[in-house]
Amino acid sequence: MKTQTINPLTVRNRIHPQLFALYIAFGSIMMMFAALTSAYIVKHAQGDWLEYIIPDYFYFSTATLLLSSVTLHLSYNSFTKNKEGGYKSLLLVSFVLGVAFVVLQYKGWITLFEGGVDFVANVSGSFMYLITGLHALHIIGGIGAITVAILHAYTLPFIVTEKRKTRFKLVLHYWHFVDVLWIYLLCFLMFVK
Asked: What is the CA radius of gyration of the chain?
């Protein structure tokens, strides 16, 4: 019987199909926000733009989101290193921080609205609510994914398998993506006035 030898130079590092699909989704999400920020710039250049100060709640929510990314990453590391306690507790902390982000965003919208920045009076307010609202919807989708991860953590036996690592990696990559996307959007809204 002939044994087959594998030449390491011809072996490709293949990306998991689900991760590849997620990266394709990232591309379409980036295109949507690129279109929105481009439209923002065009409308801003036409004049009649309401100037406003971004509420502090948006900065607090940013810190919360960054922290949630760290805790979710630490949860993933705990999972891959067979540390069940850290995995489960940090996953719950990430969920709470994700919800806190949405609550802080909502408080920021209320502050804007009470300060005279509404949906229809000026297009600048419409863009602010649209851009931050669409991002919040993506965060809510991520919270849903974290919820499923929590259900798996507490209902399935604690076993580290490739399938479960891949599922968790999907959640982790998505969460990091919406984190980086928010940093971009906040910087854009701060500096393109």
From this structure: 21
Q: How wide is the angle at C-alpha 134 spanned by C-alphas 148 and 99, nearest 5°?
A: 40
The predicted model scores a pTM of: 0.89
CB atoms within 10 A of CB 189: 19
Kindly give, in sequence order, each residue whose CB lies less than 8 Å from that of residue 163, ignoring residues fewer than 6 positions away.
none
Q: Which residues contact 95 (CB under 8 A, 6 or more apart)?
A: 143, 146, 147, 150
Quick: pLDDT tens for 54-71.
Answer: 999 999 999 999 999 999
For 53-191, the fitting CATH number among 3.40.50.300, 3.30.390.30, 1.10.10.10, 1.20.120.80 is 1.20.120.80
**What torsion do the CA atoms of 75, 79, 81, 83 make, to the nearest 10 degrees?**
80
| Distance, first Cα to last Cα, the chain | 72
